[in-house]
Automatic annotation (TrEMBL):
Superkingdom, natural source: Bacteria
Pfam families, A to Z: Abhydrolase_1
Residues annotated as domain AB hydrolase-1: 15-242
Name of the protein this chain belongs to: Alpha/beta fold hydrolase
GO MF term list: hydrolase activity
Organism: Vibrio paucivorans
Protein keywords: Hydrolase
InterPro entries, per database record: AB_hydrolase_1 (IPR000073), AB_hydrolase_fold (IPR029058), Epox_hydrolase-like (IPR000639)
Length: 254
């Protein structure tokens, strides 16, 4: 029996599955979960190699989707809406391909179903590896090491949420080695068989993850898709503009 993902299940009603992005965990979409659980059942997951889910040398979209499918079967959830951010958006699309009949709606936050060629995380990866190699004994030491590689304080603070202390050394909850080795596969994408699940792509206006030139790829894979742009926000749109993102999600699932 394969291991199950770590998860949190809250609220009652139609189930919404929340899937975080790279270097995240199930708390990343907590701002959405806290609102949505008032009138829905909300399932938040830690993807493999993230949070306190199991570590694996293998990390690709098919396997990550299979992990979510296995958890849904275990929890006997067979009618649900998927919401995924960034890497989690691609996982959500793969789950929708696998469980076509069970997915009521699909919402992808700032991600396109394409193979990206730009390596956006090299500075983050250097910072994570440096922390692993230098064995800091406190969160502030770890943040100082990260600061040598990552300029933006918000990114450092976000990453530091995945630090924990073991044997007096600060360690990462996510599996840095596997993420580094599988990074090309995280950037990559194999087009899915077309699905007609009603799909909403929500784009941060200042982000370049979802662009007009991706529209043909989107339409080819998801025939019933539309897009909504949230002004004055970047890739972390749910953190920067939670009210607007929630309004868009609620309008779409209503």
């Amino acid at each position: 029996m394969s291991e199950l993902l770590n998860y949190k299940l809250e609220g009652e009603g139609h189930t919404i599955v929340l899937i975080h992005g790279l270097f995240g965990n199930l708390d990343n979409l907590g701002v959405l979960a806290r609102d949505l659980k008032a009138d829905h059942q909300v399932l938040s997951v830690d993807l493999r190699n993230h949070g306190i889910s199991f570590h694996s040398d293998e990390h690709n979209y098919q396997l990550m989707a299979d992990d979510v499918v296995r958890l849904l079967a275990h929890l006997q959830i067979s009618d649900f809406t998927l919401v995924g951010h960034s890497m989690g958006g691609k996982v959500a699309i793969k789950v929708a391909e696998t469980l076509k009949q069970q997915v009521r709606k699909l919402i992808v936050l700032d991600m396109a179903p394409v193979h990206y060629t730009t390596r956006r995380h090299d500075n983050v990866i250097s910072g994570l590896v440096a922390v692993s190699e230098q064995n800091p004994s406190s969160r502030s030491q770890a943040l100082d090491i990260l600061a040598q590689h990552i300029e933006i304080d918000g990114v450092r603070q976000f990453l530091s949420k995945s630090l924990y202390k073991q044997d007096d050394i600060m360690q990462w909850r996510f599996n840095v080695k596997s993420i580094v080795e599988n990074y090309e596969s995280i950037l990559g994408w194999e087009a899915i068989e077309p699905i007609d699940t009603p799909t909403l792509f929500v784009k941060g206006a200042d982000s370049d993850y979802l662009l007009p030139e991706h529209q043909a790829d989107v339409q080819k894979q998801m025939s019933q898709s539309k897009a909504h742009i949230i002004a004055n926000t970047g890739h972390w749109l749910h953190a920067e503009k939670p009210k607007e993102v929630l309004r868009v999600i609620r309008n779409f699932i209503a």
